[in-house]
UniProtKB/TrEMBL annotation:
It is found in: Membrane. It holds the Pfam family Ion_trans. It is a multi-pass membrane protein. The keyword Isomerase does not apply. It comes from Catenovulum agarivorans DS-2. The lineage of its organism: Bacteria, Pseudomonadati, Pseudomonadota, Gammaproteobacteria, Alteromonadales. This is Kef-type K+ transport system NAD-binding protein.
Amino acid sequence: MENTCANMSRFEIIQNRFEQIKSNKAFEIFVISVIVISALLIGAKTYPLPDSVHQLTTILDYFITVFFLIEISIRFIADKNKKRFFTSFWNCFDTLIVVISLVPIDNSEMAVIGRLIRVFRVLRMVSIIPELRILLTSLVKALPQLGYVMLLMFIIFYIYAAIGSTLFENINPVLWGDITISLLTLFRVMTFEDWTDVMYETMEVYPLSWVYYLTFIFLSAFAFLNMVIGIVVSVMEQEHAKARSEKYKEQGKVEPTLDDVQNELRIVKEMLQQHIQAQNKSS
């Protein structure tokens, strides 16, 4: 019984130490630095390298793989609720990347897969930095709302492509030969890739065709783009508010609402008025 208690106390000491390491800002910066080095290492391997440098990159790759294995082990041991650890998507993602990274990349049939998996190490930057997690989560949650915007945008594209294919097919069949090619041409116009050349070519036959292009650019590049930005920003604000409330909850606090702030201001205002009235009476 005493040995069990001693082992439990030792484990708790180790767990607390790992918790301190995981929460240490310097350790977090070091992990980010290793992720950046891993990304640079992947890029360096795409160049022809001397044998000595190639051996150095191989050693660094082994070091990074071992370091990530140790880092994920520290995070797992430091978590007091081991079952909760794998309920987090980012913990599962990091663990999967680390485990698959153990696949050898030299003299192996799985070498290509091993190299491809190492590319995804860069995504660990998202799981480490909370702001990037909020940004990616907001983008994913905004997809359902963006779907309706994309559908409306496709309808506008389709209408303009049908008009362009009907009017401009004889001018340039390469750009306006059918509706699918017209869609690609309109995408080129939307991205402002030499769109004036396309417009001036049709204006030689239809002088007022500039109205076609300007209205399409206004709808696609300006109106719809601002709608997409507005949806993403709105979802990001909701995610930031959710992150703040979770932070307050972890600290045992309650996030103040607008009503709470207004009540506090009202109380302060009443106290000031009472203080002024007391001074006036005394004078």
